[in-house]
Amino acid sequence: MASAAPPSPDSSRSPATPPFPGFWAMAWMFLFQPIRLHDRLTACGIDFENDPRPWRIPVPLRPVYGRYVANLSGMLFFLMPLLSLAIALVLHGLGFPLDLGKWAVGVALGVAVGVAYGVLVGVLVGVAVGVAVGVAVGVAFGVAFGVAFGVAVGVAVGVAVGVAVGVAFGVVGGVTVCVTRGVADGVAFGVTRGAVIGAFIGAFIGGATGVATGVAFGASFILSSFRIPLYPLEAAVQWGLYSLQALLRIPTLRYAPVRYHDLSRLPHPFLAAHIILDIPPPDAVPRIDQSRLASIQETLEACDRSPGQRRARAKVLPWLQAHALARQVVAREFAAAAELRGEFLPGREGAPGLLIHLADIARFLRAAQATALPYHRLGHVEKAADSLEACRARCVEERSPLARALLASLPYWERVMAEMREATAAASRMLPNPFRAGPPLLPDQGREVFRGREGSVKGIEALLAGHATSIALLAPRRCGKTSLLNMLPILLPDALCVFFDTQDNPTQSPAAFFAALDRRVREAARKSGIEGMPTLPERPAFEAAHQWFDALEGFARGLDRRILICIDEFERLPALFPGERRDLLLLMGLFRATIQHRRYLRLLVSGMTAPGELDAREPDARDGMDNLWSDHFINLREVRLGHLAREKAVELLRRPIEAFPEDAVPSAVAEEIVARSGGQPLLTQLYGSLLVNRLNDTGRRRAEAADVEAVEREVLEQASTYFQNIVSDAPAGVWGALG
């Protein structure tokens, strides 16, 4: 018999390769964990898929194959006779006569048949399968012949032999055939063998007794192949372990029968409930949390292997997802929760609506965590709390497994929000600071200070109502183009607005460009609650894009709702196709066809420069690239954004939100700021934000003219990149005037 020591150092095993199982370990796994045994042997170098012939075993793997053959041979020559003798002695104790001489002949005959069959299969198929099949045949016929020859026949003999041989063939047949053809074939193999051997026994004995014995053997063989005799014990143990943990709170999942038996074909009672019960609370100590989750993962993997327990994962997964999200929120890992990123979580793409809802709440909390302004932090937390109440109502209404699991985890979300509220309680004693001078405004972050663009929005809405007209939104740098595009979904509720930023979607091929655009369309549709949105077909890039645009046009016509594709920083489109310029021409041709012929699928491009002005900058273009923009962006109507009007800028500074005190920024102070900023949106917001910070830092509630002078230096420092871009974008003739 082979020991449990690993193969010799000169083998090809890597340090991560598991040790080769010893004889007794392999015997246990052979009988009860054949799937894990197959994986273990494969990791050690036994190749069942490309099984070598005996004379072609690679030299480095010969020690591994030697241990494999030795262990299985030990089962045939040592364990099988013991099994056969045990059955014979039990029957002898029940009153049946036993002839040890005939028993020995039967066992020897079974061994001879197994060895001969194994050698034949080994030569024809390969060593690994040949040895396993030979052991299967040897065990089956050794037990059958030994008991049949050595014990007086009868129904009891048929049952006893059927159980023993059924277990052997169910395991070995299942493993060897499962390795190459799947578990179902292994079962069919075992059932067929049961019928054949039963018929053989019946014919061998003859008469009514032979028929009864054969039938008893065949029925017992089939039941044993399906592991039915073990099921009552497994079910009782599983129920007991679940009850023990439920009543006494003692972790017992690691003893679940499914972890020790791969071939149980009937579902164990309370197994899924037991796994759910073992899930630790989201605020558990990390060491306990990791240990329990590792045990759960191992149990789920065992369920995946066991044919009767494979539905357990689907029942448990919603509770694991709810736990994972709550654990991330408790640990303040809001970024991971917002993306549904982590163990057991599916990611945002294709995730259930309830998980998306909670992920959006995590985005509010992430924004609250990121901002240094107490007012903004408190506002984000309040928005998260309102959305959490809506999520709770939705869970109560749905009552799905996921809804029930999430409902149980919501108190942890509420606790985190309460702690964040308490931490920002000082915000109630300070002036609120809603001004935003950083990234573009979003509907849920800065909508209240989005001012002075009502005319532009009405112009876009009027153009969309027309026929075959697309739009160019033009404005100088940092004047609010992207903020306006972000606000369009709430300002134009009758249109599906798809925002595509060329800077945020770097691509190197037409296929990648259209794939990114497809993702943005589906994301916008999901947020708007639109289902059935056509997806990009799998064809050559431009052929697929034309077909997809036609499908989007038809889909939008059916909804009687326009789809507006908004491409921000459109001047960067050539940079997305740095190689073949023909690709850029094909893309522009697709845009031109959309502008001319599609009524419900519309195009909005946003940038700093009008298409005609871009062509004027490249007068020497060749290969069809001259007049690229004006030739393709025909019938394009321009909407221009400038600085905020004086009265709008003053209104923004004096009353950015309803809760802002009317006298905090006097009219004279607001007028002075607008005179310095010129109503430029970035600078106006920056002045307002720094002014409120100064008042809060000094404990005052009213600004003075001197405060404007005091914050101006900081405005110039924080907006230095903006001023540098203004200088670099200026025409060459202006540089001299700028000094």
**Count, helices:** 30
Q: Proportion of β residues?
A: under 5%
Helix content: 55-70%
**Subunit arrangement of the protein:** single chain
Secondary structure: number of strands: 5
Count of structural domains:
4
* Secondary-structure class: mainly alpha
Span between termini: 92 Å
Keywords: Membrane, Transmembrane, Transmembrane helix
Characterization of the model:
The chain is mainly alpha-helical. It has four domains: 23-226, no CATH class; 252-429, no CATH class; 453-640, P-loop containing nucleotide triphosphate hydrolases (Rossmann fold, 3-Layer(aba) Sandwich), CATH 3.40.50; 647-738. The protein is built from 30 helices and five strands. The chain has helices spanning 23-32, 34-44, 62-93, 100-124, 127-150, 155-181, 183-205, 207-225, 231-248, 271-278, 286-305, 312-330, 334-338, 353-370, 374-398, 401-423, 454-465, 481-491, 510-527, 541-559, 573-576, 581-597, 611-616, 628-632, 646-654, 667-677, 681-698, 705-718, 720-729, 732-738, and strands at residues 470-474, 495-501, 562-568, 601-607, 636-640. The model is unreliable at 1-15, 173-192 and 205-211 (pLDDT under 50).
TL;DR of this structure?
The chain crosses the membrane at residues 16-32, 68-91, 103-125, 132-157, 163-184, 196-223. The protein has 30 helices and five strands.
